[in-house]
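Next comes this protein.

***
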Amino acid sequence: MTKSHTIINFWKTASKKKRAVTTLIRKYLKSLTIKGYSQQTYNSRHYYLSRFAMWCSQRSIIEMDDISKQVIASYQLYVSHQKVKRTGKTLSINTQRLYLLAVNLFFCWLIKNREIIYNPTAALELPKRTTYLPRNILSQQDAEAIINQPNIEKPLGLRDRAILETLYSTGMRASELINLALEDLDKQRGTILIRQGKGQKDRIVPLGDRALLWIEKYLIQVRPPLLQSKKQNTLFLTKYGKPYSSTQAFTGLIKQYIKAANVHKSGCAHLFRHTMATLMLENGADITYIKEILGHADIGTTEIYTHVTIAKLAQVHALTHPAEIHWQPDEEQ
């Protein structure tokens, strides 16, 4: 039985009592939908709270009144010892934080809505989020090699070229690209509107002339034959004339071109996102502009790219610093 089937069976057989942990989790998740939280946020909270509920059930913790500070502390210890099956390594600090943050937000909601009068997570100290430098950045040559992989003589190849150009030009996320609508494209201004990006925020980003050219070719030559309904306004369509059903299906498309270009770096849409930000910084773009293009809420998130460009700084230092220009290796020997 797969993990997903285990979770489904668990929810089906869970207690129906009003103050049962599972009942209140369902109520909380329903509130997220009513308040307009994104599907991604809903899925994430559902995933982590399902695991919390299963952990409680396995220890005969059924009712909300059974959860104390000690129970939460035990769960935190449990999470810290969990291992990733594929690698055998313990969960990263950031992943542990996600497990615990979901539980913490759930109990805060319970307090706010007067479902409970005591919050057992009040003293919970979430692991401090760690910032990792992007490990995979494409060179300009590698980026161009990937973008040139689609066979533009074929309709879907032309579509894929337009998709790759859009990713490279805008640095948008895969989830943002597959949700683009026709009306989001402003050809006259050379911009594209990204609706409900991360954090439920809209943003307008520049679209380079080259990317716009390929999108226009796709719109004229490819999209009309794919279209099955005039009401369909999604910009990029699958070969069946429908929107991409998930980011997984979309990222598989990108990965095949990365592999075809013989570029040995993991990632897909985010690979272009990291590359765009890094190369623009290296070419002199102000970091505040990069922040706006990427849709970061905090400049600190964007600053990780300044660390990535240190190699470029070292090169400039070697070429321009007077002590480096005039120094010969045997001078001080």
Remarks:
- Residues 39-58 form the longest helix (20 residues).
- Residues 10-17 have pLDDT under 50 and may be disordered.
- The chain has 17 helices and three strands.
- The first strand starts at residue 185 and ends at 186.
